[in-house]
Specification:
By secondary structure, the chain is α+β, with helices and mostly antiparallel strands. Helices cover 35% and strands 17% of the residues. It contains four helices and six strands; from the N terminus they run βββββαβααα. Helix 1 packs across helix 4. The radius of gyration is 17 Å and the shape is globular.
Length: 147
Amino acid sequence: MPTHYIITNRLVTRVPTTGSIKVNSTEYLRTDGADEAQDNLRYGEVRFTERTIANKVDSNKAIDLDDVKIVLHPDLHREDYTEPEQYERAAEKFTFGSQKVFDKLHQQGLDEAHDGDILVFVHGYNNDLRESIETLCQLHVKYIREG
């Protein structure tokens, strides 16, 4: 199953809340849109299961987010460092999510086995995570599964 890359400005927390899903070993993302957009962008990946794709093709059922693998790349948190210099030293050695995602996209574009385009989908305003993932799945069915 192909990987889809996402960039989100949704609130990512270290504490689970009602309506949140775990997106890496320490962080959670709300799925219901009951948070405000943030200034900090986070980068990650989405993979659909065969069952999710089959349900979308056969009946256009709503997506069950438990059947979708959503992973956000961990980020450095300034509040974890007591001195600004500590954070700066850590940041020099850290590979941020943006670098990871764009390196993968660049490599995919160079890969001889990849003969298609790279589609960038911007979900717009006032969409919660569930709506955005739903639309991403519809694009997957239309442009990847159907060809």
